[in-house]
């Protein structure tokens, strides 16, 4: 049991995006050669991928905290930061990904199937990417976004066609061992089987998988014994086989009572509706009366067979030890499996992500809230929230750039419509980690005289002097210097430069 784990809770964090860099190109005779800051790299994703060689979740039981690498920051010289590598976690086929609340995110079935459970943050833009005709030399860059952080539950639900169910020590492991090449542990004490055992059974030209799962006791649907761990592995099975011990010596035990107890537990357990499963009590069920090699057991089996058939069950009397009745049982199960496969409706949407990423993040809304600190206005939307996360609030120019972006998006107009006035408290971001502003409407009067944010007046001059203008300016400079020398000589001759007595 230490090597098999079928349920784990994972704490996952995708990589953060690398920060962009603000850099200016410098070389000889070009002290201000323009912006050349590179972009930050994207953070790595956390991906769950089905691998046929993986049969258990034990690796994640011992290490539930996993993080993807961060993206590297950009550098000068238009060098972009490297992207963080994706973190791929390999899981068995049949793994169901859910939230802690039970919402199904993905049903991973089939080798190579994968699901991005946490996405890495975007890298921040460098000042080279932020430059434009109006903003020629940005003195700031955007920060990288944090990666998604989430907590998910992985549950392994065995993929088999036939499930052998019954009380402990009813002979389920023995049936799997003689009908297939599987070699489960077999002993004469209860709960010998602690993990599901799979075997491939061939009956004529048909092949199907048979699962021997942990034994059932009264109250299993409520979690007693190995209850839920057992019932989880029969959710995907087409045919349920009741293996009943006809040679038990326990008081109060007989085939009819055992079957009644097991049927009650199946009726109480409800498979997950989003996985397309039908109630266990409505599936094809076959009764196998085992241990017929014992004379008293065979006599009891022959006695109860008519009663079980009257209840609508298909009954087989077998002996796993003496290999009696196994061939007929194999062909009967193969026929049921073939019919169930033909009638099965493949529900493809059940295996895709049910939490799609928004394709259009341009929308936003302004919500007016009354809190203990007074009235506030909350801006809700993916794009404003992302812009706030990318802003370096220690850089005034970056803050001004954020204000321009929000204004162009129409945030200020919506704030005015919602009743905000100068000095109102505005919140942008998640409920528990929002950025708080004291809102001041944009003042355009006179601001145009200072130039646009991020501009450099030294780069605004577009004209260059001609060669004749340069020569004329040089001669004017030399003439002014000659006149200054002549004035100094005249002052010296007039005695203004003589030393006092």
From TrEMBL:
Subcellular location: Cytoplasm
Protein name: GTPase Obg
Gene (name only): obgE
Taxonomy of the source species: Bacteria, Bacillati, Actinomycetota, Actinomycetes, Micrococcales
Hydrolase in keyword set: yes
Role description: An essential GTPase which binds GTP, GDP and possibly (p)ppGpp with moderate affinity, with high nucleotide exchange rates and a fairly low GTP hydrolysis rate. Plays a role in control of the cell cycle, stress response, ribosome biogenesis and in those bacteria that undergo differentiation, in morphogenesis control.
BP GO terms, sorted: ribosome biogenesis
Family: Belongs to the TRAFAC class OBG-HflX-like GTPase superfamily. OBG GTPase family.
Keyword Nucleotide-binding: yes
